[in-house]
Amino acid sequence: MLYVVTLTYIQPMEVISTHLETHKEWLIQHIKAGNILAAGPMEPATGGVILVSCANKAELDAILEPDSFYEHKLVSYDVRAFSPALRAETFPAQWATNAKPIPVNEQV
Question: What is the value of pTM for the model shown?
Fold first, then answer.
């Protein structure tokens, strides 16, 4: 299952900044483990977005809980699960197993 996790800052940027490095370390740990596929800040800087691949919501919760942003209640979360029906053929099939691959760079 893929999850889009939107984080919205609920503390001032001065507080967020003090936890940013530990948050990035947590992201890198889960990218290396293959759970977090992409992550980054939103524009304007009101939060961030994380794309996560995991088996279910319980596993997602276990991934999110050790994050310093979660531990210190710095953000609110909006979690949306989705099952891709279509994917660019260059998007790894392991993260969208039931999605039909669509060739890229073809004329439409």
Answer: 0.91
Could you tell me which residues come within 8 angstroms of residue 23 by beta carbon, excluding any fewer than 6 positions away? 67, 68, 69
Tokens read off for 51: 């794309």
Would residue 105 be called left, alpha or beta, if left means φ above 0 and alpha means ψ between -120 and 50 degrees?
left
Q: Would the CA dihedral through 69, 71, 77, 83 be positive or negative?
A: positive
Its sign, for the CA torsion 57, 25, 28, 32, is negative
Can you tell me whether residue 53 is helix, strand or coil? strand
Summarize pLDDT for 52-87 with one digit per residue, the tens. 999 999 999 999 999 999 999 999 999 999 999 999
